Hints:
Blueprint: H1 10-22, H2 28-37, H3 41-51, H4 53-61, H5 65-70, H6 72-77, H7 83-94, H8 100-104, H9 115-126, H10 128-135, H11 141-152, H12 158-174, H13 180-193, H14 202-205, H15 210-217, H16 223-233
Helix pairs in contact: 1-2, 2-12, 3-4, 7-10, 11-12, 11-13, 13-16
Amino acid sequence: MTAQKNRIRPIAAIKAVRALLKNPEDTRQVFLVTEALNGNAGIRSFERFRKSAVGRAVLSERRVLLDHLRDQDRLARLPVGTLGRDYYEFMSREGLTADGLVEASKTENFKPGSDEFRLFAERGRDWHDLQHALTGYGRNGLGEVCVLTFLCAQSWNPGLLLIAIAGMFKTAKELPGQPVKRAVWEAWRHGRKAAWLPGLDWEALLSRQLDEIRPELGVRTPVIYQQIVAAFAQRTPANGERPTPALAAE
């Protein structure tokens, strides 16, 4: 037995999504939504991971990605342009730490079922911010929606898909006249064409240049997203206006 199948709880998911939309910083709600809707989606991803070469190595070596991401000194010393250095700068700029998602992920309903599945689940939690650095999406509202959409295009995840769709409509209202839905659709297309993120050897990629690994992994430039961010960067905040919520964290 690898993990216990979760019962689908749509009401709990809707409540968590509403709470997340009210406070996008409440990351715990993301884990509550996924637990409420995922059923055996996580088990299927784990089985695919376990059969891959990287998965077998990670599980046999009991590799913990979080240990590498906590080593701020090593990450800071990596050459400019590497995934690890970009991740370090991203986390420093946003005031985040590698342990930030650990507490948020602790919920009463998560029952890993086995040490291997727990290791896989925690690994998925820990490479979330690496995904930002790899794909080029920021931590603003639109960037988070695009990151989730990118991942959903690779692995069926009903919880994350619900969050992405709800976030897309909310962001579209906050950015009237901007091609938000096109940016999200672009993220979906890019996710479909890219290498499967859960199966990447993230530890080995940390010291490699992003300009090299992005083409290798089929990770494309988020052109429409960047155009939206650039458009709003040109009009802030000389007029004293507050930053647009959907782009406030950029």
